[in-house]
Design a protein that fits this description.
It is built from four helices and five strands, in the order H-H-E-H-E-E-E-E-H. It is α+β, with helices and mostly antiparallel strands.
């Protein structure tokens, strides 16, 4: 397994464990984070990601777990992970199971860029009362 794939796997493990300091350790200082869901994130860096993406995600969802099923590694330190994001919405109690593709770009063993493509309809339906 390549070092970039191992770094991405560590990121998922730390996310599932709620290990925010461990996540920050794996992020480049100027990390770019792009999602299909609107978190209003315009800044780069770990702190805006924590404040505008991860904290709201943890507040909105009673549980969430990204489960990668496949990793595709490219020579340019890019990793694509394909999987299922399973979550329970805190306000509605509805469960969602959304397929996703994440594109990770690594630099010096840290995540420099993250791009998310996810089934936004599954997420939207779980949010509906």
């Amino acid at each position: 397994m390549s070092a970039p794939v191992e770094t991405v796997k560590r990121f998922y493990d730390r996310l599932k464990a709620g290990d925010v300091p461990g996540l920050v350790e794996l992020m480049a200082d100027d990390i770019a984070w792009e999602t299909m869901l609107d978190f209003g994130l315009d800044e780069r860096g770990p702190q805006p990601i924590i404040d505008k993406v991860l904290a709201p995600l943890m507040d909105e969802w009673a549980s969430f777990s990204p489960e990668p099923h496949e990793f595709i590694s490219a020579e340019n330190n890019t990793v694509v992970s394909v999987g299922t994001f399973t979550c329970v919405h805190r306000a509605t109690g509805k469960r969602a199971s959304a397929t996703y593709a994440h594109i990770w770009t690594l630099q010096d063993d840290k995540v420099a860029r993250f791009r998310q493509y996810i089934d936004t309809l599954a997420i939207a339906q779980a949010r509906e009362p």
